[in-house]
Amino acid sequence: MKAIGFKQSLPITEENSFIEFEAEKPDPKAYDLLVSVKANSVNPVDFKIRQMAATGTVLDSPKIIGWDAAGVVEAVGDKVTSFKVGDEVYYAGDLTRSGSNAEYQLVDERIVGLKPQSLSMAAAAAIPLTGLTAYEALFDRIRIDPEKDKDKSVLILAGAGGVGSIAIQLAKKLTGLTVIATASRPDSQQWCTDMGADFVVNHYDLKAELDKIGHSQVDYIMDFVDINAYWETVAEIIKPQGHIVSITGSDEPLNLSLLKSKSVSFSWELMYTRSMFTTDDIDRQHFILNHMAELLDEGTLKTTLTTTLDGFTVENLKKAHQMQESGKTIGKTVIQF
Asked: How far is the C-alpha of 142 from the C-alpha of 177, rounded, in Å?
């Protein structure tokens, strides 16, 4: 099968930052589905792992990355019960396994959902990683109760990005929260409004912007950009007994004592936790993806696809990585095979 990977962590402009090669088509075992990949999308995790996985070394064989895909089940393992050959599926994969930058991929059925029937393969491939991340952040980490919490507010940092785009929709459509998103450019501000945000504020002077709209403090904060850069500000603007969730990680310790007097909760969210550790509730992602497929098919949610690159090529993969590295993309970029 055709695959695209890398042996060295090189700048994306370098000729060998990605290389095309032939790999053996894998065989599914146990809970595995063998999926014929039809489209995949590129996320910040892709370029971050490409930049770190082979620094100062040359790998013996190319590393295949890529998380987020839509395709067709070609074969199944002997423990598979939820899918059959011919099913159209979508998923975000597993950091510990070979990725979706290949014509065929193995993926555990417990982290796979049936593709939304109303969406193309490209439109569906834009959803899984960001959708799972946003859904888990809202309902598994903050544990929003749509009935009890409907009059509360949530601030979404980086509302126009991949995760922010779906988080705005989920928060507005499923919870009734007042949704405030950050964006600075006119096009990204309009995108957040189109996704359903009640307010869009400029992140360059966040506290003053929140004061202007009458929400000087918020109940929940979802960080999808840089928790270190905003830490002192979010500690100030979070309401007593509020909850902050972040996906961005930190190279240095966060001063959690800033949250103590308000009894504020803080959570990390990594949607790969369930697959990396094969948690007891690993199949939760199967149900989340199926739920989101229903919401997409009924029109409650809409795909966040903004750019489609036609053709599974080194050139298109490099272009998609360059777009992600710019930090200025809106929505999701998908490669259509």
From this structure: 13
Would 274 be classed as within a structural domain?
no
pTM: 0.94
pLDDT in 10s for each residue of the chain, 337 residues: 999 999 999 999 999 999 999 999 999 999 999 999 999 999 989 999 999 888 888 999 999 999 999 999 999 999 999 999 999 999 999 999 999 999 999 999 999 999 999 999 999 999 999 999 999 999 999 999 999 998 999 999 999 999 999 999 999 999 999 999 999 999 999 999 999 999 999 988 899 999 999 999 999 999 999 999 999 999 999 999 999 999 998 888 899 999 999 999 999 999 999 999 999 999 999 999 999 999 999 999 999 999 999 999 999 999 999 999 998 888 899 999 9
Same domain, 258 and 142: yes
DSSP letter string, 55-80: TTS--SSPBP----EEEEEEEE-TT-
Q: Into how many domains does the chain fold?
A: 2
Same domain, 150 and 238: yes
Are residue 195 and residue 230 in the same domain, yes or no? Answer: yes
CA nearest to 127, candidates 314, 251, 285, 279:
285
- Has residue 84 been placed in a domain? yes
